[in-house]
Amino acid sequence: MNKWITTVVVLFVAAVLVVGCGSKNSALPVTGTNTGQSGITDGNAVSPDNEESDTVDTPTDNGDSSTEGQTPSDSQDKGPDLAAAADAESVAVLVNKEFALPEDYKPEDLVYPDVRFTFKEKIEKRMMRKEAAQALEELFAAAENDGVYLAGVSAYRSHSTQTSLFNRYVAKDGEEKAKTYSAVPGHSEHETGLAIDVSGSDGKCAADDCFGGTKEANWLDEHATENGFIIRYPDGKESITGYKYEPWHLRFVGKEIAAEIAERDITLEEYYDAVPVTGK
Ligand SMILES: [Zn+2]
């Protein structure tokens, strides 16, 4: 009986000691927790950035005007991304005689695609935006697998290069005629870093009508879209694109859009349902 009471007393004392220690120790972490909480409060100060990202969503409201009554997911499923058409940074940007790039636009991610060109120098017109350059390497490799040897003729062109080029044409032929075969500065797809003129590896018919109907042109017509490129100015679409048939001018738009354009046999203008540039 005494043993049992002793055991109870010992356990009771032990319990008091443990609780005592516990409450002493617990006083310290509280201070630490307070410090931690003030840290969390600092973290909340980031919230103004979140408000900015809300502001970014606003343009979506403007896009609703053409898709009234549809939920956002509906419009994503059915139509093209119209914001991309006007975004110079987008690989799907629409640049033509009607729509220009911003005056000071310069692509940030220009690289030298590792493909054959008709010249050796590492100069501006050999460059393309990274995504387009990688796709071009795949395109040229796919062509070689089919026994078709392509060469780049002219890819990226800066705004200042396009300006001096256009001015030279104007001095030679007058503005009206120059506009029929050269883009006004800001309106050339070559300024996007997403377009390239190509020829056969011998460089014959480079950016010339005689490229049409060649083995290389026929191969591109059939396969370019498989790597995300389109023949930007197809035969018979002059009234829509504003340019005569240019079988050598490739434009990277990404595989998804290229596939749809090929399947529906349309131009980039028609893809966006944009107004024909010649006003016809
Ligand atoms: Zn071109």
UniProtKB/TrEMBL annotation:
Keyword Hydrolase in annotation: yes
Residue ranges of domain D-alanyl-D-alanine carboxypeptidase-like core in the record: 126-255
Alphabetical UniProt keywords: Carboxypeptidase, Hydrolase, Protease
Alphabetical list of PROSITE patterns matching this protein: PROKAR_LIPOPROTEIN
Composition skew (Polar residues), residue ranges: 27-41, 56-74
BP GO terms, sorted: proteolysis
Annotated GO MF terms: carboxypeptidase activity
Short name of any one Pfam family annotated for the protein: VanY
InterPro entries found in the cross-reference section: DD-CPase-like, VanY-like_core_dom, VanY/YodJ_core_dom, Zn_M74/Hedgehog-like
UniProt name for this protein: D-alanyl-D-alanine carboxypeptidase family protein
Organism: Paenibacillus anaericanus
